[in-house]
Amino acid sequence: MNNDTFAHRRAFYLLKKYSSYTWCAEIFRLTKQFAEELEQILRNPPPMFSPVLDLDEMYINDCWHACSKMEEGLALILKTDRTTGYTKFAEGSGFPGSGMYGEADRGAPCRYISNSHTDAKYRALGYSGDYRTVSSGLFSLLEQAMVLETYENPTIHIGPDSIWSHPESLNNRFWPRPITDNLRESIYPVFRGHPSQLPAVPKSDNGAPTIISGEEVLITGIWQPEILKPLDKKTLALIGGIQSYCMNFLVQGYSAPNMVPESAYELWAKTGDGPTYLKSTHGAVRWRLLWADDRYGKNNIPEEEKDYLRSAPPATVASLKIEKSRIAGGQSCSKTGYWFTPAQANSRRHFKEGEIMPEIGSDYGTTIWQWDSNQG
Question: Is residue 164's pLDDT more than 70?
Fold first, then answer.
């Protein structure tokens, strides 16, 4: 099988890109900026935002809880603990927006848009009310984070009973909007997926480690699937006779996914109605290690990643330092000073580095301690 077609090169590049520290750090940056600006509005609410409701407080608390998970995951990814790092990051990424956009996508009332007052004030801040129309202002930050997360999420296989995601889908725009490509690019510039010239895919090594679908992944990296046995005539008639497969990014400690034939994906992509998700087409394959992910040794970020966020903000991602300015209750204090939590009135107090931040029982859920900018 030819392992170095343009489609293979593109898939290999995008799998590395969407699983990278740089890509995950941008999701975190956008979510954190959204949380900071929304909290600023909550602390000094304009007339249209008053009164501040318990629902508003719950939402900002959820945002900071998600940021805390992402921040923890990023630090672990940079320390090369990918298994725990990707798991922690996935617990936070996408969560702040799920109550806004995820419920709207399913036609259900949004979790945080429960009454006319809340709806009006969030719309005044730029919320569009539907993930198929572009939000602006403050909510464009959250929406961009959600867009990036839709690429990152199917790239990394960390869920139980995962099913292969076709690498070609990584080059598609998952965010279907009734807007022109030019407008889309001006709003979401990181949609520029890959350079026109792509490096060759590593050659498959017959002596490389292999695993079967369902077995534990031993090494985080990009794996190449191989057919174990010929497909039966019934399945061939359903999906067509031509079979070619491509690689996926698998994470150590999780089970290797099953496979669906590429032609089944193509049929589903064209018609919206195909056998891709029929269990009869899911099958075990042999996964062969193609590229072991050894990025970020000694906290170094590969030179290649500087191009991952074209037209991105001027912040130098390679030198990004994760400083915990918000810490969940039960975790250790990151630096000595004054902290407070919205979960309790008059909560400002002094903590020493390494001291365990207490959890406070309240209606806000998880206790999030925040660094007080006024250390006087």
Answer: no
> Alpha helices of the chain — where are they, by DSSP H?
6-18, 21-43, 54-78, 82-92, 95-97, 103-105, 116-124, 138-155, 181-187, 233-239, 262-271
**Closest of 337, 306, 328, 301 to residue 71, by C-alpha:** 328
Among residues 175, 303, 221, the alpha carbon closest in space to that of 19 is found at 221
CB neighbours (10 Å) of residue 348?
13
Residues in the chain: 376
Structure tokens at 156: 């990394």
Cis peptide bond upstream of 45, omega within 30: no
Q: Which tokens is 98 given?
A: 């799920």
Amino acid at residue number 169: S
Q: What is the pLDDT of residues 240-278, one digit of tens each?
A: 444 456 688 888 988 888 776 656 656 655 665 544 455
Task: Return d(Cα 135, Cα 126) in angstroms, integer.
Answer: 5
Q: Contact, 12 vs 37, CB < 8 A?
A: no
Q: Which residues contact 375 (CB under 8 A, 6 or more apart)?
A: 337, 338
Q: Let me know: does 286 contact 212? Beta carbons within 8 Å.
A: yes
> What are 51-79's pLDDT values in tens digits?
777 777 888 888 888 899 999 999 999 88
Considering only residues 236 and 341, tell me which one the structure prediction assigns the higher pLDDT: 341
Going from N- to C-terminal start, the domains of the chain cover 6-191+206-298, 323-376
Quick one: pLDDT at residue 204?
80
